Amino acid sequence: MADAKPLRLAAEDPEDLKVISAAVQDSVAKAGALKYDARRRRFSIELNRFRWEADDGDGAKQRVRSIVAFDGVLSVKTRAITKADPELVLSLLSATFEADDEPPGGVVTLLFAGDGELRLTVEALDATLLDSDYVWLTKKTPNHERRR
User: What's the pTM?
Assistant: First the structure.
C-alpha cells in the first residue's frame, strides 16, 4: 500500500482550484457536514476523500477524512441539495471558479452527483484542503460508468 502523505493544499486562483478539485473528486459527505458560518464568512465540508494519489497499482484503495474550506464567502446558494435529511450522502464531483467582471471576486461552484450544486459567492478565491491522519482501506474504486 502506498504511503501517501496527508494533503495540505491551498488555492488562490482557478488553476490551484483545479488541483483541489481533482483531489476531492468522488469524495462523499453527509448533508449535515455542509457548514456555512456567515459571521466568519467561511463555508466548509467535512468529507471522506478517495485517495487517488495513493493508488500504486497494488490493489489497495484508501479513503481519508478531510475538510475543504472556502473563506471570504459572501453568500451560498443551493440547487437540488437540502439539509432536511442530515444523513443524506452527497458525492462531490468537482469545484470550479468563475471570476466576476471585476476580480478578485467571483463564484465557486461545487457540483455533486445527481445534479446537486452549491454556488459560493466569494470576495476572492481562498480555498484549502486538509487531510487528517485518519485513513482506512476501501474495496471500491469510484466508477462513473452508467449502470443499466
Answer: 0.91
